[in-house]
Design a protein that fits this description.
Elements (H helix, E strand, L loop, with lengths): L1 H29 L7
Amino acid sequence: MVTAQLVNVLVDVGTTVLVLVALVITCAALMPPRPPR
């Protein structure tokens, strides 16, 4: 059904966004803090 396809697409997009956010947070946590000007 169309609704099932939409749900699958939304789940895929949501999972991708969560993975990207997790990668950004991990990179920010691993990178040393920038010294203030």
